[in-house]
Amino acid sequence: MKIEQIEIYSDTSNLAVMRHPGRNFPGSLIQGDSLFILVQEARELHEALKLSSNGDLAALAEMHKEKLEDRLAVYENALLEHGISLPYTRDA
What is the pTM for the complete model shown? Predict the structure, then answer.
């Protein structure tokens, strides 16, 4: 872990906008529990679309789901490495 100053452009609850040092543009911070919900929704959407006849839409949903799952994995590993509990309960 390292501590650095960041620029906060909006600290609206669950919608924070900040610029990480070394980045040209601000980013949108997604809280871990909100990220987990987005992943769950993407999984549900992908499962529903796999049953549809629209293969292109199902493939797009799968790519979206995988990007969110990758981001969630990085988040969970960072918390685990620093001994921080997850703010949600994962499915078994």
Answer: 0.85
